[in-house]
Design a protein that fits this description.
Layout (H helix, E strand, L loop, with lengths): L1 H25 L6 E2 L6 E2 L1 H18 L9 H23 L8 H23 L4 H34 L1 H7 L34 H19 L5 H20 L3 H17 L6 H15 L1 H8 L2 E8 L5 E4 L2 H8 L16 E4 L7 E3 L10 H10 L12 E9 L1 H20 L17 H31 L6 H20 L9 H21 L6 H8 L2 H16 L11 H9 L20 H14 L3 H27 L2 H13 L4 H5 L4 H23 L2 H15 L8 H13 L6 H6 L1 H16 L16 H18 L4 H13 L1 H21 L1 H9 L1 H21 L12 H18 L4 H47 L8 E5 L4 E2 L2 E2 L6 H9 L5 E5 L2 H10 L5 E6 L5 E3 L2
Helix pairs in contact: 1-2, 1-5, 1-17, 2-4, 3-4, 3-15, 4-17, 5-6, 5-8, 7-8, 7-9, 7-16, 7-17, 8-10, 9-16, 13-36, 14-15, 15-17, 16-17, 19-23, 20-21, 20-37, 21-22, 22-23, 22-25, 23-35, 23-36, 25-26, 25-27, 26-29, 27-34, 30-34, 34-35, 35-36
Length: 1024
């Protein structure tokens, strides 16, 4: 009796964890204690967990068990982040939310404590590898148990056919207890039909699938190291059955996640040769036992034809009957269509122009008047009831499960995150199912919660990395690698499913992680954390991640801004172009600048995003971010210091005067050319340092792409020579080096010829050079650009005032400038030795290089009649490098390395604070500009809908700019109006006064003439 008592005393926690490993997956989610305001229940497993945790706490108090060093602090950090989020949410956010209940939020937080505390309990039970092997047996029993139940669920109807009398007498089935809705959550047993998705004893098929994603890599990994043949056969059968059950769930993402996790495990175990056999086995089982799952894979995306309105927004899907009409080019008398049931769309490049039909009408439940009012208040141009001219387009359709995520669940979680990016909106403030666990964590606990959650896995990964060389037992190693594969699979699964919130999955996950940590501590007690943490957090990957995170902080709110100014012209080009016309853009500029590649990119962007601005803004941000990464690479090659590379990229990304290139979609030319030139320079540096032919070819290709993007490319050849003189330090007079410039010289010579032959438009005014004012413009504009980059928009009034004064003293200015030039030339001639010494000094050489790079990048624009923020794009690269060199020089006065880094961080933080304050102002300006354009088009779309051929639209007090943000300059409103009616016969014009508009209305056909005016806030109204 005493021995039995001592056994229980020593193994009580192990018995409890073993019980949970079996009980959690086996026991259905039957309700126990109801929680008001939600259909989530406290269940029996929660009471067992509470009992086992209580026993563990008592043992912890009496020091019979210990916490794992460092790992407990990572989990505690996550709990603390959740607590802060909960408190902040209840105090500040909850009062403004509907259907938020603090008690439910608190219980959600407690549930996360419940999940993770199992890690400590399981960790405390591992004393030797024997404990691990016992747990593997228990886990196998658990998997076998619910797998047999799942097979019964799947095939019980076949048994019914075989034994009809027995089943009719007892009405037997393997019931499913689900929690998908409030009624099911009450514990209603469901007999699943033959083609249903199998749930076994889990609350849903996704939960069961996620559980298998976690455990299959573990079972498979251990399979290879079992010594007895009979056990190997049993383990293989169990693995195959587990894969079958996973297929029965019909979860596409989980099937892919399982393959990913299994692949990772086999690679880590050195069993790569088994990857293909397991893939073949999985696919064969998929086709043999679940045609439904295979069909779901095939129907994830499909081609179809849809009806779109004038803005390219999908409003209806063609039936199969009408598909035949489309195929036969019959586009008349298309009848009323129903909206597609729960499908989303991606546009496809149209081989021919989209076909028109004027008979389609799509109705919604909202009244017309209410729909108009709501849509106009929200600044939209799409309305709930639409009619008139429609287009028929080919699109790629993704199914309802993706659509639900994209259109409802994910935006809701993202909005919860935006309410408070640091701490989120709090637990229970998002929908019950977000179907993206990472977005759920962001929405509920913010960036702090996400960092805290990921830090747990980060610390565990450090433990595993250090202990692996010490592990001698193959079973232990296989288990650890299996856990790694399972966790990787779960993270992939978490992109589309809330796997870390599903209780059966989450509880098992933290138990297995606790066991894994316990196994690691068997072989090693002391682990190094600080060195690895510092090394990883200061790695190139994380440095780039910091830039990405700051990009979201600075610019995320601008993604929703509407189109402005020239954007409508670019969009009209894209909307009226088809795939077959794209090659012609390279030989015909169509009366505009020679920028064919930009038009091609805009065509495909319009194909994807149509008249929805966020996709375009995200694309602009992406190109800017990639250019910043290129600058990071260049500076790292120069200094080999991450902090200086970070500073240069930071300045390029967030310089306030870069506003137009960030917020304005029409600056796509600047963004593309800057991107191509930056990476051309990277390839050129690699070519010079490694004599790499591939890098040389890539440099030529990127130069060509830049020439096809923007006129600034004319400086590419001088830029390469500048790089060779100051950076690569090759002798440019050598024949070999001269010949290396030849392709770039050819491109430079051919470019003006191609422009002339492609019928590029000639422009005057500020877009042309004025020969008499060329020198003053060069000097004045350079000062203006440098001041704008240094001081931001507050410098512009000073620049404008100075320019106006200097215009009146032109002769004096030219005389002074010529005199200064000759004085400077004499000084340089006399001090040639000083110049040579300066060139040898690394700091001054880089300062001169940065200044020349900046100047050279501005040369094409310095002779113009004025300055514009958008022309800075490439020049900011030189400015960023210049500031970085100055910062490095300032920090160099301090000899100690760490102090230098601290000084650089302080300087960057101060600069970042200034940039952020200016960014907030510019963001507001561009948002307001987009609000005005969106409301203007929305007003016309809502209140002047229909056909208006040969009509005249007059506008009074048309807003041009909001501070530095463009609205409707130079008649670009006409292209915006085109998107409302798609009618080139409608004329758009400006009037000086409202009285002129009233005269037109009084003396002409009112049905063909419309007059509109704008109030002081930019809101449009009709003149009667």
């Amino acid at each position: 009796m005493k021995k039995l008592w001592n056994f229980f005393k020593e193994n009580l926690l192990k018995i409890g964890i073993s019980f949970l490993i079996i009980f959690i997956p086996w026991y259905p989610k039957l309700p126990s204690v109801r929680i008001i305001h939600t259909w989530v229940y406290i269940r029996f497993e929660d009471f067992f967990i509470l009992l086992i945790v209580a026993i563990w706490l008592l043992q912890l108090i009496f020091r019979r068990v210990k916490l794992p060093p460092k790992i407990w602090s990572a989990i505690g950090f996550y709990w603390l982040a959740g607590l802060l989020s909960l408190i902040f949410s209840i105090i500040f956010i909850a009062p403004h939310l509907l259907n938020f209940f603090p008690s439910v939020a608190a219980l959600y937080y407690i549930r996360h404590i419940e999940y993770l505390i199992l890690f400590f309990v399981a960790f405390s039970t591992i004393r030797s590898v024997k404990d691990l092997k016992d747990y593997l047996i228990i886990l196998s029993i658990a998997v076998i148990g619910f797998s047999l139940y799942a097979i019964g669920q799947r095939f019980y109807l076949d048994f019914w056919v075989a034994f009809p009398k027995f089943f009719e007498k007892y009405s037997f089935c393997f019931p499913s207890f689900q929690t998908g809705n409030e009624e099911f959550a009450k514990g209603i047993p469901l007999c699943l039909p033959r083609d249903a998705r199998i749930t076994a004893t889990f609350a849903g098929h996704y939960d069961l699938a996620a559980y298998l994603v976690l455990v299959i890599p573990i079972l498979t990994g251990v399979l290879f190291f079992i010594k007895k043949r009979i056990y190997q056969i049993l383990a293989l059968v169990m693995t195959v059955v587990s894969i079958m059950v996973l297929i029965f769930t019909a979860s596409r993402v989980s099937f892919a996640a399982y393959l990913l996790g299994l692949t990772a495990t086999l690679i880590l175990l050195g069993k790569k040769k088994f990857i293909i056999p397991f893939y073949i086995l999985s696919i064969v089982l998929l086709l043999a036992f679940s045609g439904g799952t295979a069909k779901r894979f095939l129907e994830t995306f499909r081609l179809t034809s849809v009806v779109t309105n004038n803005q390219g927004q999908v409003v209806g899907q063609l039936s199969s009957e009408l598909q035949n009409k489309v195929s036969n080019n019959v586009f008349e008398n298309i009848p009323t269509q129903n909206l597609p049931a729960g499908s989303g769309f991606l546009g496809l490049p149209q081989l021919n122009a989209p076909q028109k039909t004027n008979q389609a009408v799509v109705q919604s439940a909202l009244s017309i008047a209410e729909a108009k009012r709501l849509k106009l208040e929200n600044g939209g141009v799409e309305i709930s009831t639409v009619s008139g001219n429609f287009l028929i387009r080919k699109v790629l359709v993704y199914d309802i499960s993706f659509t639900t995520r994209f259109q409802a669940e994910w935006p809701n979680a993202w909005n919860a995150f935006l309410r408070n990016p640091l701490l989120g909106s709090g637990f229970a403030t998002v929908t019950l199912a977000v179907d993206n666990n990472l977005l759920r964590i962001l929405g509920e606990t913010g960036l702090l919660g996400m960092v805290a959650f990921l830090s747990i896995f980060f610390v565990l990964a450090l433990v595993l990395k250090q202990v692996l060389p010490d592990i001698k037992d193959n079973i232990a190693k296989a288990f650890l690698f299996g856990v790694v594969g399972g966790v990787l699979g779960l993270f992939f699964n978490a992109v589309l499913i809330d796997v870390f919130e599903a209780s059966k999955v989450a509880e098992t996950l933290w138990i297995l992680l606790g066991i894994a940590a316990g196994v690691a501590f068997i072989y090693r007690k002391d682990f190094e954390y600080k060195k690895y943490v510092v090394k990883i957090l200061t790695s190139h990957f994380f440095t780039v991640f910091y830039l990405f995170f700051l990009t979201l902080v600075f610019y995320l709110k601008s993604v929703g801004n509407f189109f402005v100014a020239d954007d409508f012209t670019w969009l009209k080009w894209a909307a009226t172009t088809n795939l077959s016309q794209l090659p012609k853009l390279f030989v015909n500029a169509q009366g505009f600048f020679y920028r064919p590649l930009d038009k091609v990119v805009m065509f495909f962007l319009y194909t994807l995003f149509s008249f929805s601005a966020p996709g375009y803004h995200l694309t602009m941000l992406l190109f800017n971010f990639l250019s910043a990464i290129g600058i990071y690479i260049i500076v790292n090659k120069l200094f080999n210091k991450k902090i200086l590379s970070f500073i240069a990229a930071f300045i390029f990304l967030f310089l306030p005067s870069q506003g137009e290139n960030v917020y304005w979609i029409s600056t796509i030319s600047n963004n593309l050319s800057t991107f191509f030139i930056v990476y051309m320079l990277i390839f050129w540096m690699n070519f010079r340092s490694k004599s790499s032919k591939l890098n040389y070819v890539l440099a030529i290709v990127f130069a060509l792409l830049s020439f096809l993007s923007y006129e600034i490319s004319i400086i590419i050849l001088p830029l390469l020579i500048l790089f060779d003189i100051f950076i690569t330090k090759v002798k440019i007079t050598k024949v070999k080096n001269i010949l290396s410039y030849l392709p770039f010289a050819i491109l430079t010579v051919l470019y003006p010829i191609v422009r002339i032959m492609s019928h590029v438009a000639s422009y005057g005014g500020d877009y042309a050079y004025n020969i008499p004012h060329l020198i003053p413009n060069f000097i004045g504009n350079f000062i203006g650009y440098f001041g704008l980059m240094t001081f931001g928009e507050p410098f512009l009034p000073l620049y404008t005032a100075s320019r106006n004064i200097l215009k009146e003293e032109m002769i004096l200015v030219v005389t002074v400038l010529v005199a200064l030039f000759f004085v400077l030339a004499i000084i340089l001639f006399v001090k040639r030795s000083m110049l040579r010494e300066t060139y040898k000094n690394e700091t001054f050489r880089l300062i001169i290089f940065s200044g020349l790079f900046l100047f050279l990048s501005l040369v094409p624009f310095l002779g113009l009649g004025n300055i514009a923020e958008r022309y800075e794009g490439l020049a900011v690269v030189g400015f960023a490098l210049l500031v970085t060199v100055i910062f490095a020089r300032l920090a160099a006065f301090v000899k100690v390395g760490k102090q230098q880094i601290i000084i650089l961080l302080i300087l960057t933080t101060l600069l970042g604070g200034w940039y952020y304050s200016q960014n907030r102002i510019e963001t507001g300006q561009w948002f307001e500009a987009g609000r005005i354009t969106g409301r203007t088009l929305g007003y016309l779309r809502l209140y002047y809908d229909g056909n208006h051929p040969n009509s005249n639209f007059y506008f009074v007090d048309l807003p041009t700019r909001k501070a530095q943000a463009w609205i409707f300059p130079a008649g670009y409103l006409s292209d915006g109006v085109w998107f409302i009616y798609r009618d080139d016969t409608i004329k758009v014009d400006k009037l000086s006064t409202i009285q002129d508009g009233k005269v037109i209305l009084a003396t002409s056909n009112r049905a063909k003439n419309f007059v509109f005016a704008f109030d002081k806030n930019g809101n449009i109204y009709a003149v009667k």
